[in-house]
Amino acid sequence: MRDVYIIGTGQTPVGEHWHLGLRELGALAIRDALADARIERAEALYVGNMLSGCVNGQENLATLLADSAGLLPAEAWKVEAACASGGAAVRAAALAVAAGAYDLAVAVGVEKMTDGVSGTVSAGLATASDQDYEASHGFSFTALSALMMRRYMHETNWEREDFAPFAVTAHKNAAGNEHAMFRDPISAEDFNRSPVVASPISVLDAAPICDGAAAVVLCSKEVIAAHHEPVRIAASASATDTIALGARDDILTLGSAAVSASRCYDAAGLSSDDIDLFEAHDAFTIITALSLEACGFAQRGEAVRLAQDGCLEPGGRIPISTCGGLKARGHPVGASGTYQIVEATLQLRGRAGTNQVPQARRALTQSIGGHGSVAVTHILEV
């Protein structure tokens, strides 16, 4: 297998894009990534998306974007892995280049969630859960996360208010990201007072519904030119777990996240101690905590303490959500995994502006679908 490098990134602002559709958002990110790489063509396009069929009434999405971005007749297909679709698209492109099928490939994640009414979007998101045993009984994604958070609090004796630093840090980081949806900082008091959605989860525990697209250009070593700022994909891995929470031996162990991270560490010859920043799938504060523990940054039940001790901030031991994360940058579900890759690449290039992690050389990104039913993890390095 060949080494794979990122040589171009592109992203749209995350928000409510009433004047842009899927084709416009996706094409904008793709063109920006190609321009950053200073190339005009690519041999393949992999599109991460979850909801285009049920919310936007549009399948055959990859061909639509290949046409809109001027990439015809490139191979193009959609990659769906629930909320991990963006990360899965990057992995698909990386595997194609590593295998020698192509020298240049583009991965883009795109989602247009604000086109649908809230009920339609909620029903679409619920398709990532078990339809027979969860969704059909009225369990929303927020409700399932609330069950996990309640159990975590029961086992560890942490209170809901103790989770505030996760959200506060994300919003603080988003203030320096011009592409983020929520750039205003919040306080612990704001978190504690925020309205409860499904106890113990409140509005400020959860990532927002929004629109956005992010893209990366991947290539083999032979394609790298003098003007490129290449970032190597040192490792890429994916793993799965049961879709239904009730089918797991332990709902507080994100098995897919732990296995995919372990595979990445082994492939790269690294450990969690070698990682300079972590782009976590912080769709809910409880998922942030469980991801940190699954990836080896904290022992079971201790991730909340990391947050309280400031270890997750830009100057801390393991900075997370460095550009706001899903919580404050926004979570256009099928695109979030590619946003993570774009943001980690900017960090490793030293181009993250006020959010820059000093001397960052290695980044771990992890995109999670469902409630840990699938996870896609990457290690990037310079």
Structural account:
With 382 residues, the protein is of the alpha/beta class. It has two domains: 4-117 and 209-231, Thiolase/Chalcone synthase (Peroxisomal Thiolase, Chain A, domain 1); 128-206 and 234-381, Peroxisomal Thiolase, Chain A, domain 1 (3-Layer(aba) Sandwich), CATH 3.40.47.10. 35% of the residues lie in helices and 19% in strands. It is built from 13 helices and eleven strands. The protein has helices at residues 22-37, 52-56, 61-68, 85-98, 118-126, 141-156, 164-174, 188-193, 255-268, 285-294, 303-308, 325-328, 336-349; strands spanning 4-11, 44-48, 75-79, 104-112, 196-198, 201-202, 211-220, 231-240, 277-279, 362-369, 374-381. Strands 3-2-4-7-1-8-11-10-9 form a nine-stranded mixed beta sheet, with helices on both faces. Strand 10 (362-369) and strand 11 form a beta hairpin. Helix 1 packs across helix 3 (61-68) and helix 4 (85-98) crosses helix 13.
